[in-house]
């Protein structure tokens, strides 16, 4: 993880890092939550502001996760929103509606393909 952190610092300007932090803060994240996320998975903050905004919107507003949970489950930010998170959520939602599943979204999103 240390090398990913170094890569992140070398890849982004100070202005870019601040603007990405502002995206997280706009969703109610504290400096502690952001630091915890970056400590656990430095690449989580590398995507563009718009990409992070879309992921945060989906994870927090649609799925109802809070910053405490997301900061400690940083792997969710490394997955593609359109190719992994949303399709799996749709499948799980259908299974849940039919009464065939009683699991949280996160556990299924981590299973290997």
Spans of at least 5 consecutive residues whose pLDDT stays below 50 are none
How many helices? 7
How many E-type strands?
0
Question: In what range is the share of β-strand residues?
Answer: under 5%
Major sheet attributes: none
The end-to-end distance, rounded to whole angstroms, is: 24 Å
Mean pLDDT: 83
Q: Which sequence of SSEs, written as H and E, runs from N to C? A: HHHHHHH
Instruction: Work out the helicity level.
Output: 55-70%
Structural class: mainly alpha
| Whole-angstrom Rg | 15 Å
General shape: elongated
Features:
66% helix, mainly alpha, 7 helices, 113 residues
Quick take:
The protein is mainly α and 113 residues long. It has helices at 2-11, 14-26, 31-40, 49-62, 67-72, 81-97, 105-109.
What do these coordinates show?
By secondary structure, the chain is mainly α. It is built from seven helices and no strands. The two termini are 24 Å apart.
């Amino acid at each position: 993880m240390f090398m990913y952190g170094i890569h992140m610092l070398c890849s982004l300007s100070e202005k870019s890092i601040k603007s990405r932090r502002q995206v997280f803060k706009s969703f109610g994240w504290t400096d502690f939550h952001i630091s915890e996320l970056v400590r656990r998975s430095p690449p989580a903050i590398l995507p563009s502001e718009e990409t992070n905004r879309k992921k945060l919107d989906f994870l927090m507003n649609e799925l109802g996760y809070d910053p405490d949970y997301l900061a400690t489950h940083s792997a969710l930010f490394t997955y593609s929103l359109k190719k992994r998170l949303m399709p799996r959520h749709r499948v799980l939602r259908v299974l849940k509606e039919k009464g065939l599943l009683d699991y949280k979204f996160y556990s299924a999103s981590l299973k290997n393909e």
